[in-house]
Q: What sequence folds into this?
């Protein structure tokens, strides 16, 4: 509501208007975090230009001035990050939550700073060390690591010359049994030895701890140091065993993510503590009233677990993507080396190949976001259009090729099920889940219905038009035509399906008279519409040209949507990138991946993706033939949603930040790309490589897709939602999954 004082005319209106705008500008530029939204509407009839005060409000005419109309203000640390945030709101661009540049250390929260801190900081009050995470460390690693140190200590005492190292191992056995609240300190040595130990303070980018340089030859020759008999015995008998044990602890704790502090602890112990002479190490327990220690602190740990380590990143890559990367190597080696399934069966290889797609999808997404953020609009649009659907297309094409070689129509039906599952999942499940999770933190969430309406309109166009209940006219129908309910205005990818059901011949495999009356009711099984009657005249003369026409028109509509949203009507997003940072924060962009590095990773990830897709299609046949679950269900769940898991995680993170617009756009953009890019590409691919794929879907796919799109448009109509509406979408999605689960297998499988 506009204050009444602003409705009066006169010279005093200008300063009042300017002061209000300045206050809104101050609110806009003081937004903390990545995203902030603020809207204001000021309508002033016949406002003189001379009376307006500079501010965020701009005078568009002498009658009306609109300011900050539902404008989304983005604040970023640098221009590259601002470009990435701006691309998130553009239609056709991949939405990416993670940073593509290194964030300034002072801008991070205390929780995140603790994740990257070294384990050499003594806190004044550490609190109780008896926590669940510390007890978990004791049960998983502490007891056997301490026992190993006791055994090594016994071996070193037996050698006699290694007795100093034996005493050290005895002390370390007590330390690693419960290292919390204890400190390992490096004591001072005579100056003659300091030159040999200089430069041991370099930091490790991965585990956050200092690592020693290469041992210098002149230091080896020092009296009583590395050439000492005890040191030789230690390096031959004690250190290799303990280093291997600490390596296993580091890997295991790192894979558990929440125990990454234990991984840092073990890595520093193997690379720093065990390489120092015993006389230079001091192990002691800290007390609450103890004064700070003098000298260098090597290890000081209070907590073995931290639940916030899911935010941890290595060179901009999330820790989960780092941990899943070795899985890709294992999948490729096991899949191509053990081609005869001597080591593992097809089910294991199929599962590994499917899981390997998740980290590869993450790397492809980050590479696309990095290239787009560092390039102009044209390059970003080309990269997103080319590689945005590469994950799904790689799997679909390899499946169609394998089905064509084997003459098995089941692969084409599985691809259709996966396409439908991706469409339904991205329309119902992804936004619904984001609404539920975001609604737990925020009572009501709002989004830009104007920008969401573009994707919804394109999706509605690509799936189907206005549904009708009239019976198609019988005139002009081919022989054997059966009256059926059909859409009155079919459109999009299902137009050939609806066309075939109107003019195709209904053929049934088996029919039984249930009334024992020749004119009574018949119960028929395995019925389908035959398009190849009369030597395929209907299909080749009518259906196939319609399929090619639709496959050309849908990408054209997608390009028009890009031109509409990114060129002529960019104001529907109203994105403003703030160039005002916090006081004293002026940082240049330090990108995690340069354009060439991102391009190389993108190409390698695509190559690995094609190999994993080939393995998945190679070993899916036994699952399809031997499984009691419908092939429909396998396609719409596992094959459709597993590659989209990184996108689902991004959507949830946006929803938790009360930015539901991007959560909805993630699902809409994927669904639009399925209908307007992926399906036309598959159809055009069949021209050059004949397969069993035709753009004729089953009734279940048609009705599920159309109902999902209609429900989505109804939910998104008012531009606001809560967790109840999200629950409705999720429940409808699960109901459709139940329908697919109990549905019989498609014909040809």
A:
């Amino acid at each position: 509501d506009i204050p009444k004082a602003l409705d009066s005319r006169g010279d005093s209106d200008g300063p009042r208007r300017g002061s209000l705008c300045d206050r809104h500008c101050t609110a806009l530029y003081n937004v903390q975090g990545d995203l902030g939204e603020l809207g204001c509407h000021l309508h002033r009839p016949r406002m003189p230009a001379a009376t307006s005060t500079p501010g965020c409000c701009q005078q568009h005419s002498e009658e009306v001035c609109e300011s900050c109309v539902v404008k989304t203000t983005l604040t970023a640390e640098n221009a590259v990050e601002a470009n990435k945030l701006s691309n998130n709101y553009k239609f056709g661009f991949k939405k990416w939550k993670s940073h593509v540049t290194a964030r300034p250390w002072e801008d991070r929260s205390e929780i995140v700073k603790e994740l990257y801190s070294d384990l050499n900081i003594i806190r004044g009050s550490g609190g109780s060390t008896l926590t669940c995470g510390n007890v978990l460390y004791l049960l998983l690693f502490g007891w056997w690591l301490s026992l190993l140190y006791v055994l090594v200590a016994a071996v070193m005492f037996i050698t006699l010359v290694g007795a100093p190292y034996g005493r050290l191992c005895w002390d370390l056995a007590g330390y690693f049994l419960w290292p919390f609240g204890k400190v390992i300190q490096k004591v001072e040595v005579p100056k003659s030895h300091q030159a040999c130990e200089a430069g041991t303070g370099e930091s490790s980018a991965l585990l956050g701890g200092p690592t020693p340089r290469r041992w210098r030859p002149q230091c080896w020759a020092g009296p009583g140091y590395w050439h000492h008999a005890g040191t030789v015995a230690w390096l031959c008998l004690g250190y290799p065993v303990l280093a291997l044990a600490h390596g296993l602890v580091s890997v295991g704790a790192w894979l558990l993510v929440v125990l990454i502090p234990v991984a840092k602890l073990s890595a520093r112990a193997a690379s720093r503590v065990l390489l120092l002479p015993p006389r230079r190490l001091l192990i002691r327990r800290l007390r609450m009233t103890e004064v700070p220690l003098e000298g260098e602190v090597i290890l000081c740990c209070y907590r073995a677990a931290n639940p916030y380590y899911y935010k941890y990143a290595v060179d901009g890559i999330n820790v989960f993507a780092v941990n899943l990367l070795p899985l890709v190597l294992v999948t490729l080696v096991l899949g191509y080396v053990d081609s005869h399934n001597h080591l593992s069966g097809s089910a294991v290889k199929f599962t590994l190949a499917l899981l390997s797609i998740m980290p590869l999808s993450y790397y492809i997404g980050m590479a696309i976001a990095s290239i787009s953020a560092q390039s102009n609009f044209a390059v970003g649009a080309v990269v997103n259009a080319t590689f945005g659907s590469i994950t799904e297309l790689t799997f679909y094409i390899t499946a169609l090729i394998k089905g064509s070689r084997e003459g098995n129509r089941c692969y084409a039906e599985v691809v259709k099920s996966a396409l439908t599952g991706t469409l339904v999942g991205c329309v119902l499940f992804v936004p619904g889940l984001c609404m539920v999770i975001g609604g737990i933190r925020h009572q009501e969430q709002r989004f830009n219905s104007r920008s969401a309406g573009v994707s919804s309109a394109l999706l509605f166009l690509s799936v189907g038009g206005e549904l009708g209940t009239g019976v198609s006219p019988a005139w002009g129908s081919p022989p054997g035509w059966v009256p059926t309910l059909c859409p009155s205005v079919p459109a999009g990818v299902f137009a050939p399906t609806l066309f075939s059901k109107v003019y195709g011949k209904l053929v049934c495999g088996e029919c039984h008279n249930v009334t024992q009356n020749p004119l009574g009711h018949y119960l028929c099984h395995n019925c389908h519409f035959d398009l190849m009657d009369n030597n395929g005249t209907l299909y080749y003369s009518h259906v196939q040209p319609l399929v090619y026409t639709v496959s050309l028109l849908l990408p054209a509509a997608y390009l028009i949507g890009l031109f509409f949203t990114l060129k002529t009507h960019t104001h529907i997003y109203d994105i403003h990138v703030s160039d005002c940072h916090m006081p004293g924060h002026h940082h240049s962009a330090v990108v995690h991946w340069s354009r060439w590095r991102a391009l190389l990773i993108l190409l390698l990830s695509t190559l690995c993706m094609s190999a994993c897709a080939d393995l998945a299609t190679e070993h899916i046949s036994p699952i399809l033939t031997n499984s009691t679950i419908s092939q429909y269900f396998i396609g719409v769940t596992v094959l459709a949603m597993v590659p989209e898991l990184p996108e689902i995680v991004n959507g949830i993170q946006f929803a938790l930040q009360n930015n539901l617009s991007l959560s909805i756009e993630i699902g809409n953009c994927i669904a639009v790309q399925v209908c307007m890019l992926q399906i036309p590409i598959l159809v055009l691919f069949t021209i050059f490589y004949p397969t069993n794929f035709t753009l004729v879907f089953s009734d279940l796919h048609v009705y599920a897709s159309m109902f999902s799109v209609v429900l989505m448009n109804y939910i998104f109509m008012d531009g606001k939602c809560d967790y109840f509406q999200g629950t409705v979408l999720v429940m409808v999605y699960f109901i459709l999954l139940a329908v697919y689960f109990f549905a019989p297998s498609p014909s040809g499988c």
Notes: Residues 1-70, 197-227, 465-490, 580-585 have pLDDT under 50 and may be disordered. Residues 116 and 378 are 37 Å apart (CA to CA).
